[in-house]
Amino acid sequence: MKKAIILAMLSLTTIAFAQDKKINLGIKAGLNYGDNGEIEFSDVTNAGENIATEDADDRVGYHIGAYIRANITDNIYLKPEFLYTQNNSSYETSFGKSNYKVKRIDVPILAGIRVLGPLHVFAGPSLQYIIDTELEDIELEDVENEFTVGLQFGTGIQLGRLNADIRYERGLNENQAEGIQENTGATIRVDSRPNQFILSLGLDF
């Protein structure tokens, strides 16, 4: 239901804005490189004592979606985006190696300024709805919060209908998924906040 509401809001916004000559619609896709935070192992038989904590190893993920760029002035714009994103991480611990995937709907709401010719810089919040989390060989419960907020900032170029940008994203609030490792009985908590660099290519309609 929440996903349907987000899609409906995006469709209505697109239809309304598309009547304005200062509005550009487009599609985009690209790669993410980063991680989703640390993993913790706790002993449930010993008052939840921490057994181990390990940082994630960076891995490549991807994203695909659409955007609206509203030109407020010749140099300032707003750019809401609607993206499907998959973040990947891996953990090398004494319990073995595990891969972790987070699948999300992202809605960055960016404000940008053109600084020199085709070059521009931008920043803004990213609204995130987590669809699913998968830790290899471990059944995870749902994350604490399906809706979270992150921050993005970066730089890009616009060449005719083509555009490209690179940005950094960081999740702002801690958001863990939890599970039980069957062979040890240890409780596992995985931080699902993104911490990544994002490279995108886009095309205006």
UniProtKB/TrEMBL annotation:
Claim: Signal is one of the keywords in the record: yes
List each copy of the Outer membrane protein beta-barrel domain by range: 17-174
Q: Which SUPFAM superfamilies match?
A: OMPA-like
Signal sequence, start to end: 1-18
List keywords of the entry alphabetically.
Answer: Signal
Q: What is this protein called?
A: Outer membrane protein with beta-barrel domain
What broad taxonomic lineage does this protein's source fall under? Bacteria, Pseudomonadati, Bacteroidota, Flavobacteriia, Flavobacteriales
